[in-house]
Amino acid sequence: MEDIKTPYLNIQTDFGFKQVFGQVKNKKALIRFLNILFAGKLTVTDVIYHDKEIIPSEEEGKRIIYDVYCTMPMKKSDSSYFPVSQKDGADGEKDSEHHFILEMQNIYIQPFEERLVFYASKMIVGQGKAGWDYELAPVFAIAVTDFNFNHMSPKLMRDVMLVDRESMEPLTDKVHIFLCSLKEVPAHWEECKTELEEILFLIKNMENMDNTSMAYKEGRYPEIFEAARSSRLRPSDMVEYRKSLDRLRDLQRGIKYETENARRKALEEGRAEGRAEGMAEGMEIGEAKGKNAERRESIRIMISLGISAEKVAEKYQISVMDVRKIAGLQ
User: Fold this and answer.
1) pTM (2 decimals)?
2) Which of 49, 161, 191, 308 could disulfide-link to 186, CB 3.0 to 4.6 Å?
3) In this predicted model, what pLDDT tens digit does every residue of 87-96 receive, in sequence order?
């Protein structure tokens, strides 16, 4: 287990993420992140941290442990997320306790998106009580991921709601799932154009920074840098952080190996197939086969998620019969 020589924690680790955003002493860092994420549609002034473990009501039920779970009491009129029709108090000031779940996920484990839906649903079910009139308190399930979803186009941030698929009108705005992708963060600090890009850049690169880094010298995120200082850790915390860091690096090495191995295998297959027509053409075929293998895998994933063969065929400009064949449906 290696010594920690960097002044700041790796926030992508399980320990580092919870240290920065899941500690009462660092609540300013969480509040800053949430306000940047909501971009003025909702203003977070304070948060109340809760037990991150949800015990199932049934003996054989699924136990949940969130990375961060907190709430914030506020007035409906303080948030533009509420349509006028839902501000039904006499003066539009009816209280509403917002629920926030924050998760860091470094690798896609199917079906992660459904796990987020399950997490949000538990926060909804937990609101039930005797005499309840079914009016929901808002729930925000927020995931920072180090991957993109194969069945969705790459995007820095998504705000997913229950909406009509044609008109895009929301059925309700009480349930939001935010997806923030570190894969879409600019490579350099100077390339970040928004606060969201900047704070996600910090999450992705904090371990590699010091007090000479441009992000630090600009002085616009002191609460994030302060919360991530490794010198603030107790000896017992440092042991846990080292373990968490080792797990993350093992995971990243495994992903890199599997990715390179899959690409090498596809290229080799393409080269072998193309040698009869010349090495140069074989290399070109290898690249094409690699891309084709990725496309076939994306098609299989989309079908497994319940997306219709017709929609998939339209997306990839192929026949429905070919989609079904690739997905093993015929």
Assistant:
1) 0.75
2) 191
3) 554 444 456 7
